[in-house]
């Protein structure tokens, strides 16, 4: 057996984990292990290579391709000439791949204190007893290279779940890991799932001109959102592409014709909730039914670490990993492998906390998971923060909440847009004006929600936010101002006017 690589810090995962290598470690040794992400085995994790960044780089051209539809509402005739998928794809990935490669070579070649293990690694099954005896954490790579480190961070992320059905491993069945690199735009695509990823890709492909069939197991899309947004979005999606509910994928069978590039099309065999079978001939299938934490890939359970019921690592407020209910000193986790919210801004925040705690073990800081917003960059776009109306009613009693749903179309900028569907909903405690949540669907809702995130983060009440500042007239942000003003909350005598 070869001599283990020894280091002060070990990191498993080069996504958000990559940012832990701060100047503090310059005169110390770091081992960074990453097996590679997506169909190209890229460095730098999900967000950069197969997640947030490339998806939004496809959302933008897709939104522009909807230009004629939007322009027609305001009496302008536009014509879409072409959508050049191969050029678009290559432009997007030439940027993404260059950043990924730059990141790899910076870590691997330029930083002398960092050893990069471009392999899948597994925690030593006797991780905890060895740590007690030697003071070090141990893990091993597939080629037998082993590493021992004083502190260790598990930032190994999550991966797409695939249903175990016949044909699911055909090359025409994609996940978000591979779909963005396909050779050409499909004419007809079936998307399985009704959550973030399915709704974003349904928006992308339908905007670019593909015929989209979205299939969800439950009734309605985006079931995690507030009911008003969920219903409004489902109704819009049903107008924009085909949406089928209460069905799932039974099998995928290769056909002779259709398809994209070298692969022929497939028949997606769906099974309805009452047991009927329905066949859809499509060019390809995208499966987007959730992501599972990579705890199995790192051997977390075998190493004696505690797991949540959904397979995530259990961490305390300092992001320390728990074993038998107790935090293991020097062992941290962050991002999708331990976080309830699989969101990049959450992983980044946790990484800042872990970076601090690694460098200051005597002054540990806690992570914060209140007022975590998210946006779904579909068509229409959606955004949310805080409690849904149902959750707020359960938390403080329905009689104590006040809500306002502001239509974009009832504001000046909404008139300019001829907007017919945008809504912004705020939920507050009617007793003291505390903002409990906000939920929106419509143009730029991911930006419009930020003042509410700010108010919730800094504890500002609804009336103070509405009247304690100027709102630019007649900007679209007046949607938010009007939603705040529509809440029935107490207004103190000396409140700003
Ligand atoms: C299609 C898509 C779109 C998204 N869009 C958004 C968005 O718009 N906004 C948003 O906030 N979030 C979005 N997300 C979620 C976001 O990408 C993730 O929450 C975030 O990237 C998680 O970061 P992480 O550091 O935890 O994991 P990752 O970035 O996945 O990093 C984990 C790394 O660990 C490596 N690894 C795993 N196991 C091992 C092992 N045993 N040995 C060695 N290496 C290993 C992996 O290869 C990977 O590189 C999106 C996700 C997807 C899939
Ligand atoms: N914009 C963003 O912030 C963004 C974008 C993409 C992904 N993400 C993150 O990635 C996570 C994973 O995304 P996701 O969309 O894969 O999962 P998800 O949990 O958001 O949605 C899964 C969906 O698949 C459906 N489903 C599950 N099994 C099914 C089956 N067998 N047949 C048909 N439908 C089925 C569920 O009803 C649900 O609608 C998200 O929860 C989110 O945290 C975030």
From TrEMBL:
PROSITE patterns: PYRIDINE_REDOX_1. Residues 372-483 form the Pyridine nucleotide-disulphide oxidoreductase dimerisation domain. It comes from Nesterenkonia lacusekhoensis. GO terms for molecular function: mycothione reductase [NAD(P)H] activity. This is Mycothione reductase. Residues 28-350 form the FAD/NAD(P)-binding domain. It comes from the Bacteria. Its cofactor is FAD.
């Amino acid at each position: 057996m070869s001599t283990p690589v020894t280091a002060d810090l070990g990191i498993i995962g080069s996504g958000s984990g990559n940012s832990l290598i701060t100047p503090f470690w310059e005169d110390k040794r770091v081992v960074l292990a990453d097996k590679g992400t997506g169909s190209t085995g890229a460095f730098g994790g999900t967000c950069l290579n197969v997640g947030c960044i490339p998806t939004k780089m496809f959302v933008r051209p897709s939104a522009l391709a909807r230009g004629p539809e939007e322009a027609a509402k305001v009496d302008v005739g536009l014509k879409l000439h072409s959508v050049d998928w191969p050029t678009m794809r290559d432009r997007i990935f030439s940027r993404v791949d260059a950043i990924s490669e730059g990141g790899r070579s910076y870590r691997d070649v330029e930083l002398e204190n960092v050893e990069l293990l471009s392999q899948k690694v597994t925690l030593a099954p006797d991780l905890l007893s060895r740590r007690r005896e030697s003071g070090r954490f141990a893990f091993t790579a597939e080629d037998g290279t082993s590493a021992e480190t004083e502190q260790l961070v598990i930032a190994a992320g999550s991966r797409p779940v695939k249903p175990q059905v016949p044909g699911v491993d055909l090359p025409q069945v994609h996940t978000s890991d591979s779909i963005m690199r396909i050779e050409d735009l499909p004419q007809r695509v079936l998307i399985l799932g009704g959550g973030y990823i399915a709704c974003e890709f349904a928006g992308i492909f339908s905007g670019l001109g593909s015929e989209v069939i979205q299939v969800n197991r439950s009734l309605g899309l985006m079931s995690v959102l507030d009911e008003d947004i969920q219903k409004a979005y489902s109704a819009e999606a049903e107008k924009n592409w085909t949406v089928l509910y209460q069905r799932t994928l039974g099998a995928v069978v290769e056909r002779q014709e259709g398809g994209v590039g070298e692969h022929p099309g497939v028949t997606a065999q769906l099974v309805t909730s009452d047991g009927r079978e329905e066949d859809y001939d499509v060019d390809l299938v995208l499966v987007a039914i959730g992501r599972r934490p990579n705890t199995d890939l790192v051997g977390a359970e075998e190493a004696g670490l505690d797991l949540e019921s959904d397979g995530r690592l259990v961490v305390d407020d300092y992001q320390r990993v728990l074993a038998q209910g107790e935090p293991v000193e020097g062992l941290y986790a962050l991002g999708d492998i331990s976080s309830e919210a699989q969101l990049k801004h959450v992983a980044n925040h946790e990484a800042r906390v872990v970076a601090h705690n690694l460098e200051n073990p005597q002054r540990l800081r806690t992570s914060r998971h209140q007022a975590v917003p998210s946006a779904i960059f579909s068509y229409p776009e959606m955004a949310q923060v805080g409690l849904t109306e149902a959750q707020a009613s359960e938390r403080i009693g329905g009689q104590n909440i006040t809500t306002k749903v502001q239509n974009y179309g009832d504001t000046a900028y909404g008139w300019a847009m001829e907007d017919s569907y945008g809504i912004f909903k705020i939920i507050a405690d009617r007793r003291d004006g505390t903002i409990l949540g906000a939920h929106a669907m419509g143009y730029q809702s991911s930006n419009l929600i930020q003042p509410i995130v700010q108010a919730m983060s800094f504890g500002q009440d609804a009336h103070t936010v509405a009247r304690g500042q100027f709102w630019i007239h007649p900007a679209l942000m007046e949607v938010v101002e009007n939603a705040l003003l529509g809440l029935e909350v107490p207004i103190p005598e000396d409140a700003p006017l």
